Amino acid sequence: GRRLANDRGCELAAVVLGHQIADSAQYLIAAGADKVYIVDQPGLAEYEANVYTDALNQLIAKYRPEVILAGATAVGRAFFAKVAVRARTGLTADCTALSIDKESHLLHQTRPAFGGNIMATIMTPNHRPQMATVRPKVFKMSTPDAKRKGQTLTEALKLVEASTRIVRSERNASNVNIADAEIIVAGGRGLKKAENLEMLKKLADLLGGVVGVSRACVDAGWISASHQVGQTGKTVCPKIYLAFGISGAIQHLEGMRSSDTIIAVNNDPNAPILGIADLGIVGDLFEILPLMIEALEGKKR
């Protein structure tokens, strides 16, 4: 957002909806916002789609922003689609790149299309605001500057009644959150069978990481979808991403290409994943993976 505002030559504002969240303003200013609009009301304590949609659309009508961005999280995807419909404008979901056109000043919104086989750049020339959601972890977070100065504006809105209520909340049984992992050991179709995932799990445990997989492993029923990396899974940005037997379809690459260090093992020297790897090893994973486990176990002893 800060980069786009600089390119456009305009202000960057952040919006915070919730209850008892006023202390978040300074952090957002440090992160790059010039202004922070705070709507801190009891009716926003829990996320409810219609209440949140109406609240944001009130702010849109009042301040008429040129561009609105949000994370393509589970909430963001549903929430911002409703906001766009209410605002009678377009929305490009799951963007992986954003830029400002120097001549038209339009927002260029890039995302995978046709099953991830091409990258489409979409513009909204005739309606405002231009709206896009961005896949989490696609962009690296800039370092906050505690010395930045900005303006905090508190808004008091007349909220609509919620149409649903939360009866009970239960945590998902899966405790895996690959999106937050710093080390991911990932496998693909090259593992050949579900039993070979045990080698990945062993290596991940030795490294203090978690197991990730390509879609082929999930589709084969080898492991749950919570481990899937890629366009239809999770976007990740670990410090180290080790890939074994993953060829590198564009759908998978879009979910992990921003990793700090990518190490790929594949027996095909032309595998696309080797083209983006920091360290590519052409070889048999069934020889290399056990050697890595053995070496780490010896070091641990």
Describe what you observe in this structure.
There is one protein chain. α3 packs across α4 and α5 packs parallel to α9. This protein has 301 residues and is of the alpha/beta class. The chain has a 5-stranded parallel sheet. Strands 1-2-9 form a 3-stranded parallel sheet, sandwiched between helices. It has a 3-stranded parallel sheet with strand order 3-8-4, with helices on one face. β10, α5 and β11 form a beta-alpha-beta unit.
Write a brief structural summary:
The protein is built from nine helices and 14 strands. It is an alpha/beta fold and 301 residues long.
List the helices and strands and how they pair.
Elements (H helix, E strand, L loop, with lengths): L1 H7 L4 E6 L6 H7 L3 E6 L8 H15 L3 E5 L2 H14 L3 E5 L1 E4 L6 E7 L4 E5 L7 E5 L16 E4 L28 E5 L9 H11 L2 E4 L1 H5 L20 E5 L5 H4 L7 E6 L5 H5 L2 E4 L2 H16 L1
Parallel strand pairs: 1-2, 2-9, 3-8, 4-8, 10-11, 10-12, 12-13, 13-14
Antiparallel strand pairs: 5-6, 6-7
Helix pairs in contact: 3-4, 5-9
Question: Which key phrases capture this entry?
Answer:
elongated; about 30% helix; about 25% strand; about 300 residues; alpha/beta; three-stranded parallel sheet
Distance between the termini: 48 Å
Share of helical residues: 25-40%
Beta-strand portion reads 15-25%
Average of pLDDT = 89
- Tally of helical segments: 9
**Sheet having the most strands:** 5 strands, parallel
Series of H and E elements? HEHEHEHEEEEEEEHEHEHEHEH
Compute the number of strand runs: 14
| Poorly predicted ranges | none
- From the structure provided, what is the oligomeric state, counting identical versus distinct chains? single chain
Spatial strand order of the main sheet? 11-10-12-13-14
**What structural class is derived from the secondary structure elements?**
alpha/beta
Q: Could you say which overall geometry the principal axes of the C-alpha atoms support?
A: elongated
Rg, alpha carbons: 22 Å
